[in-house]
């Protein structure tokens, strides 16, 4: 069965049903396989699917061609319902549209307009997929929340902390997007796919005849229908009542010499080469973005490489905030290979990261995640 509910209206539950697990079901093969795995372990399952974005909004972005496959679409809701019916467990569709827009979509747009490059998936995990979903799981009597993330959780008996670890399948590891989770959230969450490869997950889905066993993976943000962040920012800003038509500014070199013009800083990200809007006779890249002066600074590739960056909003995951500097492997993008660095904790949940080797395109708005081999020690936002 499928029932749409607003999470604020669900009654508080003083007690939970022993062994009941809520599964966050996206409608894809990963979360669907999680539900099947838990059932094979003789655990009671209830499915929760988030309705996050009104797909009929901003129709000018839809286009005439076939829709790109995105997570959390209406088709995904129907697929999650079909899986729940196939495996025979209760299923609820939860309306999180208001929370998703205020906590994920609006900050995403505002960050781009401020010259930063945000990570919507990290905000969604931290502010939507765990905090409200864990509360809802408790409200319907579930003790725990299971998701289809490729990562692992374990309890360190010596330190008493819950630790977040990389997935066994390096190609699918999603720990970079989960550094914002708290100890309370980790203690009540499960990632059953953390020890599996994608091929093993597909095989399990086929074995139990899941309707989504051959479904392709989603590749785009659920609120960007045509895959163009720039067009979405422009359309969303117009819907909010202000136009970006007067956002033209200067493109300058490192010396401050004007060598071109742009139509808004939201069109750029640090490290970008294509789409600068002019020919320079040699490859140029975005070095930095100054939203106050409405300027984009460009230069050659070697200038993109820096050794030091500062981060803010640190969340210490698998360790307490240390009193002194420590060594770690640091990722500055999801697809970035962890690089050796010294991390110096600063006041107000800030830190300074000094890499042994200069890193290319350290981008404000992205996350720096600190690892000790497989363990996620902490994460923070690049300033």
Shape: globular
Q: Structural class of the helices, strands and pairings?
A: alpha/beta
CATH H-level superfamily title of the largest domain: HUPs
Give the low-pLDDT segments.
1-11
Please write the string of helix (H) and strand (E) elements: EEHEHEHHEEEHEHHEEEEEEEEEE
Count of DSSP strands: 18
Concise overview:
With 383 residues, the chain is α/β, with parallel strands linked by helices.
Descriptive account of the structure:
With 383 residues, this protein is an alpha/beta fold. It has three domains: 2-148 and 192-207, Rossmann fold (3-Layer(aba) Sandwich); 246-299, SH3 type barrels (Roll), CATH 2.30.30; 305-382, Elongation Factor Tu (Ef-tu), domain 3 (Beta Barrel). The protein has helices at 29-40, 74-87, 97-113, 120-139, 183-187, 198-207, 229-239, and strands spanning 2-6, 21-24, 45-51, 91-95, 144-146, 151-156, 161-166, 189-190, 249-252, 258-262, 285-290, 295-299, 305-316, 326-331, 339-345, 351-360, 367-372, 375-382. The relative contact order is 0.13.
What characteristics describe this protein?
globular, alpha/beta, 383 residues, 18 strands, Rossmann fold, 6-stranded antiparallel barrel, Elongation Factor Tu (Ef-tu), domain 3, single chain, 7 helices, SH3 type barrels
Task: Produce the secondary structure layout.
Layout: E1 2-6, E2 21-24, H1 29-40, E3 45-51, H2 74-87, E4 91-95, H3 97-113, H4 120-139, E5 144-146, E6 151-156, E7 161-166, H5 183-187, E8 189-190, H6 198-207, H7 229-239, E9 249-252, E10 258-262, E11 285-290, E12 295-299, E13 305-316, E14 326-331, E15 339-345, E16 351-360, E17 367-372, E18 375-382
Parallel strand pairs: 1-4, 2-3, 2-5, 3-4, 5-8, 9-12
Antiparallel strand pairs: 6-7, 7-18, 9-10, 11-12, 13-16, 13-18, 14-15, 14-17, 15-16, 17-18
